[in-house]
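One-letter codes give the sequence; the fold follows as tokens. An example follows:
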Amino acid sequence: MTPFTRRRLLQALAAAAGTGPFHARAQAAYPSKPVRLIVPAAAGGATDIVGRLVAHQASLAWPQPMVVENVAGGGGVIGTQVVARAGGDGHTLLMGAINHTINASLVGKLPYDSVKDFTFIAHLVSIPNVLVVHPSLPVKTLAEFIQYARSNDTLVFASSGNGTSQHLSAEMFRMETGVKYQHVPYKGAAPATNDLLGGHVHLMFDNLPAAAPNIRAGKLRALAVTSARRNPAFPDLPAISETVPGFDVRSWFGLMGPAGLPRPVVDKLHAEMARIFAQPDVLRRIADMGAEAQVTDPAAFTAYVHQEIERWAKVVKASGATVQ
């Protein structure tokens, strides 16, 4: 073996193992140009807020900026497809969210494979939904609601659309408790909330940050959050799991890229996410949203995505929801 061949072999082994000078040089060279962060949703929502927070903080630390690009439509499919087809050098990334794992079974023909076409870099943030009811409903606790909803078949719940986390949270709750209610999907959370405030529907599993102002103002009655434990922003509000053991639904957000990202790039991106979400001011902002920061490594994030795809497939099948 010639010295050159030996050196190339050692470089390749170092890159695969994530160590050595080759790995260090590859990390140092990235990013070599502006990084596009595709947010597959409209501006102003939770996915956009988390994406812009990440992009701003990364741009402050890197020699090249990270720029948010909103590519909305198709329940997140259109923007996600952009990343699936991007080059694998790490300069086009995706702010992934829970709809990525729901769409895997909800959408009839996806233009990508929800697992094989992506690199899962880091889970970043989770946000619970919250069960809110119109104040006229004669229930004040989750247990009272379950009893009432089992014996009344006139209840109607609103959601921001078929297959959304709001819709499927309600369907999972129905599966776990045997409650009865009818679903009315809206074209977005705002019109759904307006009809709930007006008493035209009875309840909604809404995103906690979106529902918080109406809860605090007494316009809606909150019964429980969907996360496994209570939320620090509302410590007196119980978790559904306290009454329905094992219930845990959270809207998650995580950094993803196209398949085949080089290991040094993945490592650098993961390290940057860990740095960003360890900063006290970032953690305060996340907490103010009713959210929780939890940065996991690529292996843990990949396993979580597989788990979520499997779980939501069961709920989608039971609900009969579908999008073509």
Remarks:
- The chain has twelve helices and ten strands.
